[in-house]
């Protein structure tokens, strides 16, 4: 049976990818953020997951305002990264896990979710940047990927509870998968930030730290704010916390925080990284 060994939660700011390309990881502006990945690198070397199930939001590469699915799940054998306008290039291709993808799709549909199924899909910085952060200096990604896209762009957005329940449905699907894969779930994006309008540059440290405090022990506490509350608290792009909630929902076992890092700002964004361990899963 498959196991979800843990979860990695991180910002996916395009500027991070540019900093990597320029070798700026040790620059004073970037170092506090990149230093937060040292414990993640050690953990990944020890646990050696086979598959990453990534909850993220597409930035117009696959879906635009005229066609925006609430949830979409990739079921391709391979995926390519393409730059959606930030000047990011050179990311390695991704290998899919189509059998596991189809099992997840079929299982969540049985649980009354209705994802769009994507048998071809491009992956943008929301997946590529976290992969580069987690597995730097590799010739090929050491994990296969199942990408799950949530709409955090075009209203109406899914509610925080719906995002958490989607993650729980995905977690049940992974637990019922008969393959031997060790799975790490990833939630990417955020934390608080707004890129446009009168509140451009908005960061809410108190709300961010509230999320970081509750992510492992009590994700239900984060449901006290509805989607519009989160927009007000965290900024219009701060709703990417929905990706974190979905990934946290997939971790249905005994969850323990192993590492956490918070740094303000990176490209007008409150950047954060969290590593959670998942054990003693309930298979039901």
From TrEMBL:
<keyword id="KW-0223">Dioxygenase</keyword>
<dbReference type="GO" id="GO:0008198">
    <property type="term" value="F:ferrous iron binding"/>
</dbReference>
<dbReference type="GO" id="GO:0016702">
    <property type="term" value="F:oxidoreductase activity, acting on single donors with incorporation of molecular oxygen, incorporation of two atoms of oxygen"/>
</dbReference>
<keyword id="KW-0560">Oxidoreductase</keyword>
<dbReference type="InterPro" id="IPR004183">
    <property type="entry name" value="Xdiol_dOase_suB"/>
</dbReference>
<dbReference type="Pfam" id="PF02900">
    <property type="entry name" value="LigB"/>
</dbReference>
<feature type="domain" description="Extradiol ring-cleavage dioxygenase class III enzyme subunit B">
    <location>
        <begin position="7"/>
        <end position="269"/>
    </location>
</feature>
<protein>
    <submittedName>
        <fullName>Protocatechuate 3,4-dioxygenase</fullName>
    </submittedName>
</protein>
């Amino acid at each position: 049976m498959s196991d979800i060994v843990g979860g990695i939660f991180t910002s996916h700011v395009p500027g991070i990818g540019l900093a990597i390309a320029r070798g700026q990881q040790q620059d004073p502006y970037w170092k506090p953020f990149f230093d937060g990945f040292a414990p993640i690198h050690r953990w990944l070397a020890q646990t050696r997951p086979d598959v990453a199930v990534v909850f993220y939001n597409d930035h117009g590469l696959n879906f635009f305002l005229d066609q925006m699915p609430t949830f979409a799940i990739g079921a391709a054998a391979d995926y390519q990264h393409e730059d959606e306008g930030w000047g990011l290039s050179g990311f390695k291709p991704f290998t899919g896990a189509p059998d596991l993808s189809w099992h997840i799709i079929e299982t969540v549909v049985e649980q009354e979710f209705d994802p769009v199924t994507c048998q071809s899909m491009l992956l943008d910085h929301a997946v590529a940047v976290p992969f580069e952060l987690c597995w730097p200096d590799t010739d090929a990604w050491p994990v296969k990927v199942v990408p799950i896209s949530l709409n955090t762009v075009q209203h109406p957005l899914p509610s925080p509870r719906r995002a958490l329940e989607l993650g729980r449905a995905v977690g049940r699907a992974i637990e019922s998968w008969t393959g031997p894969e060790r799975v790490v779930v990833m939630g990417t994006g955020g934390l608080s930030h707004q890129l446009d309008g009168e509140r451009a540059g908005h960061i809410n440290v108190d709300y961010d730290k509230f999320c970081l405090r509750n992510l492992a022990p009590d994700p239900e506490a984060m449901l006290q704010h509805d989607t519009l509350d989160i927009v007000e608290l965290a900024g219009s792009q701060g709703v990417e916390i929905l990706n974190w909630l979905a990934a946290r929902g997939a971790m249905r076992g005994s969850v323990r925080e192993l590492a956490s890092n918070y740094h303000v700002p990176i490209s007008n964004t409150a950047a954060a990284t969290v590593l959670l361990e998942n054990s003693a899963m309930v298979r039901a």
